[in-house]
Design goal:
There is one protein chain. The protein is α+β, with helices and mostly antiparallel strands and about 210 residues long. The chain has a domain of about 140 residues: Heat Shock Protein 90. The protein has seven helices and seven strands. The protein has a five-stranded mixed β-sheet. It has a two-stranded antiparallel ribbon with strand order 1-3. Strand 4 and strand 5 form a beta hairpin. The radius of gyration is 18 Å and the shape is globular.
């Protein structure tokens, strides 16, 4: 990690992460508002039913996003807390959904340190960013390593994300879009793991292993 990238202050990191969380939540919340506004003015029963379906779906997505962000970015318990990997997998599945990306979660149902679970969920987000057209996200965790494989049409590593993970990005390059990559790098370092992202054939592989 370069000295330039490492210089991101805690205040800037907190502000940028808040912006990222708001970005993840604002879309379904906006859809809920649109659905409620439609209910206020629409008399046609079929349209009202469509509006209610939109509200329900968006409310579920907003809840899933918040639960995911609570673990991935938030405290989610006291310092040093343990988190059940099975519960984390359920939360990750609700966050990903089943429309654009299929989540294939392989992790033992056991308690792991909060820091490690946060790292794995953030590695997932790096994988998701690598398949903008959708595909399959395979997550594996064991005692030796965390592994996220992203496969799909047009799977590729974003150049800016690669620079952040390599520690070559400048301080001014870290914005609300890239702060999650920076945060993942910080989590891996705090966990004593080496983070890497590579192309393996047509797959993008994100890994974290003991240094």
């Amino acid at each position: 990690m370069s000295d330039v990238t490492a210089a991101l202050s805690d205040l800037d990191l907190a502000a940028l992460l808040c912006s990222r969380v708001c970005h993840d939540v604002i879309s379904p919340v906006g859809a809920i508002i649109n659905g409620l506004e439609l209910l206020d003015v629409e008399d046609d029963e079929s349209m009202r039913a469509m509006a209610m379906n939109l509200v329900r779906k968006s409310a579920r997505q907003a809840s899933a996003n918040l639960q995911f962000c609570r673990i991935a970015f938030g405290a989610a318990g006291s310092a040093g807390a343990m988190i059940d990997m099975g519960e984390a997998g359920d939360i990750a599945g609700a966050f990903v959904g089943n429309e654009k990306i299929k989540l294939d979660w392989h992790a033992p149902r056991e308690n792991r340190p909060k820091l490690e679970v946060k790292l794995l969920l953030n590695m997932m987000l790096l994988g998701i960013a690598s398949i903008p057209r959708g595909g399959t996200l395979t997550v594996r965790a064991d005692a030796q390593a965390f592994l996220v494989c992203a496969s799909g049409r047009g799977a590729r590593i974003n150049d800016k994300i690669a620079e952040v993970l390599a520690g070559t990005a400048g301080l001014g390059d870290i914005d609300a879009r890239l702060v999650q990559s920076y945060y993942t790098m910080r989590l891996a370092a705090a966990a004593g793991l080496t983070l890497a992202i590579v192309m393996d054939g047509s797959e993008v592989v994100v890994s974290a292993r003991a240094s």
